[in-house]
Design brief:
The chain has 142 residues and is mainly alpha-helical. 16% of the residues are buried.
Length: 142
Amino acid sequence: MELIKVTINLLGQLDFVAVLLAAIASFVLGFLWYGPVFGKKWMKYIGMTAESMKHTSKNKMTLAYLVTFATAFVEAMFLLFFTLLLQTQFWHTGLMIWFGFILLSGTGIIFWENKTWKLFVLNTGYRLVNILVIALVLSFFF
């Protein structure tokens, strides 16, 4: 029962503008990371070409953008919630989330999907930088 009270209290403290800005920053980072910065390497690692990317439907791309934005929004809320709950720093909570949920669970692409370590490092590196960007944006508000 106490946890429910704490949860309701923390939800009341959420600054949804901060969460929205963190999600937007995450979205921009993803565009840069998988676009001009590492886009060619990423396409090579997943076996796609620029030509095959052109044939991706607009509906699929739109849905992917919406899911990416929603994920960033949820990550920002999760990071904010647990940072306030644990009374710690945003970057610290972000590193715990990244290590425990992203890095370790991400190894499945190597063990089960036969993807390369290079793709693993590219994707988990993005997720680390992403969660730290979200943490940085949130730290300006809290």
